[in-house]
Here is the input.
Amino acid sequence: MNYTAELEYLMKVLKKMRIPTELVNGEGLDEQVPDLGLRHFLGLEAGYRYEDLTLEENTVYKINDEFMCRYIGILLPQPFSADALLIGPYMSYEPTEAQLLEGLERLGMSASRLPQLKQYYSAVPVLPDESPLMMLVNAFAETLWGTGNAYKIVELSRDSTASAALDGMEKKVSREDVLMQMKVMERRYAYENEMMETVAKGLTHRAKMMMSNVSLTMFEQRMADPVRNMKNYIIICNTLLRKAAQQGGVHPFHLDRISSAFAARIELIHNMDEGRELMGEMMLNYCRLVRQHALRNYSPPVQKAVTYIEAEPAADLHLQHLARTLNVSAGYLSTLFHKETGKTVTAYVTDVRMDTAANLLRHTQLQVQTVAQHCGIGDVNYFSKVFKRHFGLTPRQFREEHLTRRRGKK
Here is the structure.
């Protein structure tokens, strides 16, 4: 049977996950390992070949190499145009500087290669949890060969200790260094462009996928302190995401608020994990902002009305007052607002106030009465009724449930 469509789909999904794939011909992996040019740069092609490996049918090969990279190899049955599918490289963790130095020492290489090695790893996706990838691979294998014992998974490891101490290599290294830097920069800029497009369109699902395996070593190592480097890169990303959200139609008023808040939090980062978590939060929040505040298709009066409502949920937001504030008639604003947003002014105000209340209940210890006042509702009993109608829980129940979930994650 012809499974070309299934193969194309698998490769498309892996591309979205930033995991390289390559179709190769001929028996064995030999020099065709898609390692993004690392061994060529290090002069190790001759010392790293799978001449002794012939891929067998009905087998998924999981390959670990001496550079902490992982690959998956599958021999494709006929009538595929290629002989084998190679997936990778990817890593299960980000290597520390000490691990990279130890690797260079083991290979008999100078520590001066460290910056270039860091640049290489910045282009390799990180998968702390390999199970989603293996589920995809297993589903593809079952499509090819069937379920049960129809195929097997074989793990292979490489422990090459080849030395790259070759005479007259510095000139070659310089040339290869430039080529590898070019490749790394191309991948980084492609990632940043995709990141901006994701935010500009408010695609939260794609943002989650992109952040699931991002490596924060992709930024240029300009300073000795890796955390400072990371902070600098996240500052750049904050600017890029703000611009992308503006392209998505978000008013500058909201952009300035969220951008300033993230700028302050960036300086409080202490390690790489915190940086990755904040990056993910930034992408999701900017995406949500686009989805919630995109104003490109609204007329100027509705743009101003939406911005005013979301900026001042505690203000007097009755239709008559809002119309006077915007210097338009109440009837005109009511008709136009409903036509463009699909909601009445009253319904929109209620949604904004309830979202504001939910955020305050999640992240502060303010009394419910105070939360109600921040949302422009002076009667706490009426506030509680509206809140329960909106979320299905009273304000106190909502806060307690959120606290319970937070405790469960610790």
Observations:
- The CA atoms of residues 91 and 126 lie 5 Å apart.
- The two ends are 49 Å apart (CA to CA).
- DSSP finds 17 helices and five strands in the chain.
